[in-house]
Fold:
Amino acid sequence: MRLLITLDGRNGELMLDRDGDAYRFTYQLETGERVERAASLLEVEPGIYSVLVNGRSHEVKVVPGPDGFYVDLNGERSVVEVRDPRAVSRKGPAGLGDGRVNITAPMPGKIVRVLVREGDNVQSGAGLLVVEAMKMQNEIKAPKAGRVLFVKPSEGDTVSAGEVLAAIE
Structure:
C-alpha cells in the first residue's frame, strides 16, 4: 500500500506491507532520505498500540485530529496527515472536495474559546475553537476554506474525543 504522509509539516511517501500483525515499511522524505523498518503492531485498546521494533516495545497513542492524527510516542506528540494518492488526484492537493466537512474534537477536553460563529467565512487553516486537554490548549483549525454551518459547543463546555464541534461548507 502506498500512502502520502505529512509528519510535523514534512512530506514523505510510505510504502506499507502487512502480514497479520507484522508490518514492513519504507518511508521516504522529500529530501530523498529513506528509512526501512519491520515492526509488530497490536492494538491493545482503541487508539492505543503496542509496537515492537528491533526488540524494543513502544506504546503509541493515536487520536484523530482536524489535520490528520495526533500520535504520542515516548512523550512526544506529532501531527500526522495521511493521504491516499488516489484521493488526492481526484480531489486536488488538499484531498478535500466540495461539500460539508465536520470538524471533530481530537481528544476529550474543555472548550476555552470559540473563535467563529455560524455564517462566518473562514480560510483554510483559520482557528475555529480552542480545546484544553491535559493542561495544554489546542487550536482546532479549518481543514478548508468555506462558510461555518454551525458551532455546537460554547466556552466552558466539555467535549469527548471524536465529537462533532462544527461544520464547514
Summary: Residues 90 and 159 are 33 Å apart (CA to CA).
